């Protein structure tokens, strides 16, 4: 598998981030760089496949990222064209009219008039196997805010600790991600029966994973708060591979603090992700964690891409959602 990287100097580190191909780094000589086409897509099994299409933005520019509304988008699944209706939603986002399944090999073709074409592919990994979940501590408090004798808001605040067993398949390289989210109902304007409530993600929260097997212990960073280091066991997304637990059932302990307005439920999300998904997330995290001092004395972090003819990523995932409350 070819790995492709792109200079952070012309990256637009927002919802879409730019990349390049063939391990080529674009040297920065002080001049603005022409924008390139960018696709960002993370399809997972059982959910509608969507993609966001934009142009890159020069890193010193304050201009908004240009979204693409007139693209011709086609898809293939397991090498065969998909006869589906592609719908433009908003903000450069397209619904591709297909729900991926485990094992699907996906290919995405994008053609933008007068600007060029892009192509990328990935495979939806197998279902992640999780067992023996337990919530070891749920210390939360509900608070009601009252105005004029009416409850106008309810908030939950507190901490959650738990553990689960990840059952890793033997004989293959696997990539994983852990997240913690809440969901809530949202209402659209208009009559209720015309616009029923829909479930949406409420919020994601920082997770901490205490695991000396999956993650190295850096004694220096634990004693001194050194800026720029990447604490892989802490953040909105915990990423790791099965390199140290290959073929084993491994128990993982996690903790988080939650503060949200009237969530209906909370979930621990455990993902099996494709190599492209993993590489993009890891290099993007490293780029965001690089502080000004590091940039002055080192090369900027290069961001991974598997897109031909442009930048970005197409990476697949399967997810197991474990309900907390």
Model description:
By secondary structure, the chain is mainly beta. It folds into 2 domains: 26-123, Immunoglobulin-like (Sandwich); 130-273, no CATH class. It has helices at 219-223, 275-289, 292-297, and strands spanning 4-6, 37-41, 50-55, 72-77, 80-81, 87-90, 93-95, 105-112, 116-123, 130-147, 150-167, 175-186, 198-204, 207-210, 234-235, 238-241, 249-261, 265-273, 303-305, 311-314, 317-323. It has a 5-stranded mixed beta sheet. Strands 10-11-17-14-15 form a 5-stranded antiparallel beta sheet, with no helix packed on it. The protein is globular. Mean pLDDT is 81; it is low at 7-28, 219-229 and 292-299.
Set down the secondary structure blueprint.
Blueprint: E1 4-6, E2 37-41, E3 50-55, E4 72-77, E5 80-81, E6 87-90, E7 93-95, E8 105-112, E9 116-123, E10 130-147, E11 150-167, E12 175-186, E13 198-204, E14 207-210, H1 219-223, E15 234-235, E16 238-241, E17 249-261, E18 265-273, H2 275-289, H3 292-297, E19 303-305, E20 311-314, E21 317-323
Parallel strand pairs: 2-20
Antiparallel strand pairs: 1-19, 2-3, 3-7, 4-5, 4-8, 6-7, 8-9, 10-11, 11-17, 12-13, 12-16, 12-18, 14-15, 14-17, 18-21
């Amino acid at each position: 598998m070819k790995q492709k990287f792109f200079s952070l100097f012309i990256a637009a580190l927002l919802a879409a981030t730019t990349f390049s191909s063939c391990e080529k780094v674009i040297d920065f000589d002080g001049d603005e760089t022409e924008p390139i086409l960018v696709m960002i897509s993370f399809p997972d099994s059982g959910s509608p496949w969507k993609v966001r299409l934009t142009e890159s933005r020069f890193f010193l520019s304050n201009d908004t990222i240009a979204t693409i509304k007139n693209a011709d988008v086609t898809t293939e699944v397991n090498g065969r064209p998909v006869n589906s209706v592609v719908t433009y939603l908003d903000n450069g986002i397209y619904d591709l009219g297909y729900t991926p399944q485990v094992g699907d090999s996906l290919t995405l073709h994008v053609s933008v008039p007068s600007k060029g074409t892009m192509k990328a592919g990935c495979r939806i990994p197998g279902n992640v196997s999780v067992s023996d979940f337990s919530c070891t501590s749920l210390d939360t408090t509900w608070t009601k805010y009252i105005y004029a004798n009416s409850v106008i808001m309810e908030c939950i605040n507190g901490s959650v600790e738990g553990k689960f067993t990840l059952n890793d398949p033997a004989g293959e390289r696997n990539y994983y991600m852990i997240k913690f989210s809440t969901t809530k109902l949202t209402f659209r304007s208009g009559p209720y029966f015309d616009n029923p409530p829909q479930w949406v993600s409420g919020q994601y929260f920082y997770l901490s994973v205490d695991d000396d097997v999956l993650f190295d212990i850096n004694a220096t960073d634990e004693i001194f708060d050194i800026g720029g280091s990447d604490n892989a066991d802490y953040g909105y997304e915990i990423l790791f591979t099965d390199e140290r637990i290959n073929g084993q059932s491994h128990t993982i302990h996690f903790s988080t603090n939650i503060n949200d307005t009237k969530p209906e439920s909370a979930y621990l999300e455990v993902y099996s992700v494709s190599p492209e998904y993993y590489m993009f997330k890891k290099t993007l995290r490293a780029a965001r964690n690089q502080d000004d001092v590091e940039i002055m004395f080192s090369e900027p972090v290069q961001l991974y891409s598997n897109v031909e003819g442009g930048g970005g990523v197409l990476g697949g995932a399967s997810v197991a959602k474990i309900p907390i409350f």
